[in-house]
Each structure stands twice: as C-alpha cells, then as structure tokens.
Write a structure and sequence with these properties.
Blueprint lengths: L6 E5 L5 H6 L2 E6 L4 H19 L6 H10 L7 E6 L2 E6 L3 E7 L2 E6 L4 E3 L4 H7 L4 E3 L4 E4 L3 E7 L3 E6 L7 E3 L1 H11 L5
Parallel strand pairs: 1-2
Antiparallel strand pairs: 3-4, 5-6, 5-9, 6-7, 8-9, 10-11, 11-12
Length: 187
C-alpha cells in the first residue's frame, strides 16, 4: 500500500525502524511512550508541515525558466597554438571548434585551422549563444552555417560556409533544439 501522508510509528519493536522511515515515517516512538514523547513527535510533525506548506519563493517552473533563459557568459577570445606561437583569436572570427584524433581544433571563418588546449565542454561554457554544441565533436558558430538538410531518421546534416571534409550530423534528439537555435529563438 502506498502511503502519501507522514507517519509517526508507535511500537514495541525497534527492528522495524529503518522500514518505517522508508514508509514516510517522521518519528519512531518506542513503548512505553509518554505524553512528552507523543507531544514531541506531534510538534515535529507540525514544524515539518509548516516548513513545507509555506509557498516557495520560486516555483519549479520559474526555476527551470530561469535556467533555460540564462545566457552563457561570453569570452572575448581564445588562445590558439601555431608552431611556437600562442595568440588570441576573437570569438566572432571563429567558425567552429571540433575534435579530430582526440585533439581540439579551432577553424576560423576564413578557413584557418589551429590547435587548442581547451576541451569542448569548457569552450561550450564560454562561447555564448552564437555557438551551438551540435554533438560531442562540434561546437559551431551560427555565422558559419549555410544550411541544414534532412538526413536519415529525422537527423540533420549541416552545410557550412567554410570548407570542412567531414559531415556534421545533428541527432534526431537535438534536431528541434538546433533548428530553434538556428532561427534565433532559443539555445
């Protein structure tokens, strides 16, 4: 039987205490019990009832809305490595970040390719809403996307404004979110 209400157990058997708390038990009074032990258990019930019945400051929906609408903090540039040099590339010049042979790369809108020390998870946190994490391998700038086409089983294939040898596939689970982001109405 499913018990939805809080329960105060009054018993002579201490071996059922753990089971009692799994069945919404808020107190476990052992016999012989007194007025004081019953009063303390009822006081505990009232305190819990008052604490949880007061209306929360934010509803769950409000919190989820805030989390969904929170803008990612945008980093101005990212450091790249080329031969013996390390130099910044402005975020608005980046076409995409991608993984190839377990190494993170940056490709600019001009088609230049550089190596990075950062991983895509970290980059996803600092790129802002102009970038979308298409899959585990690609984080793409909206400016670098020419079009998206339907692909097998409700997936999408992305065409870029720059040359890139590999196909970039959006899973069917992310397709709706990606299209919403692409039109500018969500992340």
């Amino acid at each position: 039987m499913k018990i939805d209400a809080p329960v105060i157990f009054c018993t002579a058997y201490d071996e059922y205490a753990i089971q009692a708390f799994k069945a919404n038990g808020i107190d476990y009074i052992m016999k012989p019990f007194s007025r004081q032990t019953v009063a303390e258990a009822l006081k505990k019930f009232e305190e819990l009832k008052n604490r949880f019945s007061s209306s929360p400051r934010f509803s769950y929906d409000t919190i989820l809305d805030l989390l969904g609408k929170k803008e990612k903090s945008t980093q101005a540039s990212v450091l790249v490595y080329y031969k013996d040099e390390i130099f910044p590339v402005k975020m608005h010049d980046v076409a995409m970040f991608y993984i190839h042979n377990e190494v993170t790369h940056l490709k600019t809108l001009k088609g230049e390719d550089y190596l990075l020390d950062d991983n895509l998870d970290k980059l996803d946190q600092v790129t802002g809403s102009e970038f979308y994490r298409i899959n585990r391998q690609y984080l793409v700038n909206r400016q670098a996307i020419k079009s998206a086409s339907r692909f097998f089983a409700r997936k999408l294939i992305v065409s870029l404004t720059i040359n890139h040898k590999e196909s970039i596939i959006v899973s069917k689970a992310k397709a709706t979110s990606f299209l919403s982001w692409l039109e500018g109405s969500g992340v």
